[in-house]
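ugh ok so i messed up the first submission bc i forgot one of the chains. this is the corrected input, ALL of the components this time, i swear. 706 residues overall. if the numbers dont match what u have on ur side tell me asap before i send this to the collaborators (the ones from the other lab, u know who)
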Amino acid sequence: MIQTITGNKDFIESLRGKRASFLLCMSNTATANTPGITQAGIPGMLHLTPTLDAEFISIGEVRSLGTIAETPKGVPTPALLTRAVHLLHPFREIELLNLGLEITPKLEHFKVHTFSIAPSGSIEQGASIPAAEVFEKGVAFAQNLVLQSDYIILAESVPAGTTTALATALALGYDARDKFSSSFKNAPEGIKQRVIDQALSHVNESDDLFEILAKVGDNMLIFNAGLLLGLQNRDIPIVLAGGTQMACVLLVVNRILQMMEGELDSSKIALCTTKWVAEDAHSDIKGLLEMNDFSINAYYADFDFSLTAHPALKLYDEGEAKEGVGAGGALVYALLNGITKEQITRKVESFLR
Amino acid sequence: MIQTITGNKDFIESLRGKRASFLLCMSNTATANTPGITQAGIPGMLHLTPTLDAEFISIGEVRSLGTIAETPKGVPTPALLTRAVHLLHPFREIELLNLGLEITPKLEHFKVHTFSIAPSGSIEQGASIPAAEVFEKGVAFAQNLVLQSDYIILAESVPAGTTTALATALALGYDARDKFSSSFKNAPEGIKQRVIDQALSHVNESDDLFEILAKVGDNMLIFNAGLLLGLQNRDIPIVLAGGTQMACVLLVVNRILQMMEGELDSSKIALCTTKWVAEDAHSDIKGLLEMNDFSINAYYADFDFSLTAHPALKLYDEGEAKEGVGAGGALVYALLNGITKEQITRKVESFLR
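and heres the new structure output, hopefully the right one now
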């Protein structure tokens, strides 16, 4: 079942049976180097997470390291869910967007879009992102995008991305402190808080929107704000496949529109996430979406790991991992195409044997 | 599961979820009239095999004869597998190439390409193929091909085709005697050997490449060598769906390139075959592929009939039939699109009730 978070069912029902292109935005921010800030990846190898995620969803193996990215407690990457869906009901195509990677995925035959965007700095020192340039690259990408499918599922893999997203929302003046999710069950509030406070301390009252984003954002947030606006003149529905980070993309869009005194036709945009995000007591995706001047349809896939006995997967249901690598959007795509919870569960289990 | 024979997974994974056109090359060679040389078909009616295969994969019934082509021991044609896949996850289109048939398939609404190519003679007497002309027709076909899909699955049905393929490889100077498959479990080496020796006796040292092909080849081998070269300037991936015969097409291409001092961009070409070919102790598909100057990705579908109790299908697992009518490529296509071994098995069984 697909559940509605905001709006109504019509948008997502209109995509039933349609073909999707899966676009994965991969980016590194040095913010992830702060010890203990994220559990999205292998300690000491966090920068590899988006690279490994891209390899795994595309070809089912990781080439840039021996094993699938796991969190310290052994929670496997949500890329498992995305890959399972791709095996059960393939995306029309998978394309990869290099939005500043330390290590490029080792893939042949897959389209990897490059934009000459460097990994961003840590927001503790000011991220030093050429924000207007990254934004413009997102706009141009959307304007020139050629698809073989009916709609886009836009996903992300950015270690420490919830930290940069929260910092961005706060710096942009949203009262969002308690609304952001973390890849941790017991989110490391102390460390995260310190990094965010440090990040915010660099923001001056005279900074304009892009100057703020340059200091506290990440490439994914800024590029995708541009991508969404670049899609406005095109007739391509888009699913933002993610949780609070994708919600933050919309918060950025909202501020850009206010600055430009523009309006958004949000009828072709929806957000799709996981049940773990939608039901997370420590964040509020609905609240974040409702902070925008525009309204937006948002959904979650009613999928959990209640049908498995695998201890590593059970940790998802205990709140240890919640979203990422487009898992929520992929699950919704599977449910839209007749794939069952049972099938998805068995396929994910098959990766862990 | 799809297993890699040569190369890496990337090519085939990039086709996951993409749509394929299934092109069946049908041809008769009088070589099949030698008693006992092939078991691909009904004794006395061997020439009908490609015609019946085409009818069966297209519409699910055979019109030019009452029953599905069976080998003398009652092994049903691999067209059953191709048809099963087409029912479970249809090809975008099926098109038929008449490369010299005694009897045209009785089909309406299906595209049957004709090329004014006559059935070829027996290689025992020199096949008398207008080789350069057939080759040129393959080139032209590829250059003008209009597809509704993302890639081609190229299949063949040529009774006695493994005999002409082995003769061709040997005549072209490849040390391939122990590398070729047969549709028989206990391949009729005596008869085949005699026919091939006879064929090779017609080849003179002064013969050029096309003169050799004219004597010992078949239309499918020569046409498809042209087709592959004609595709070089087009952005269309192609899966050679077959075993040692399709490998022989590549051996022919290799000699043509050596003659022309040309190079092949093999990045958009792969060979996909069955497990029965890949694991055949009496042939060596990998060895054949590695005889070329270029490298090529090759895969097999990890499918067998272990899930059935049907005695006629069990014969496949005993090595009685191995490949043909694009079965290997069709199985890979099914696996790429979420279809399971169980589903394929049940569908094939349903044809035999």
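quick check: The longest helix of chain B spans residues 244-260. that seems consistent at least. The domain at 2-352 of chain B is CATH 3.40.50.10210 (Rossmann fold).
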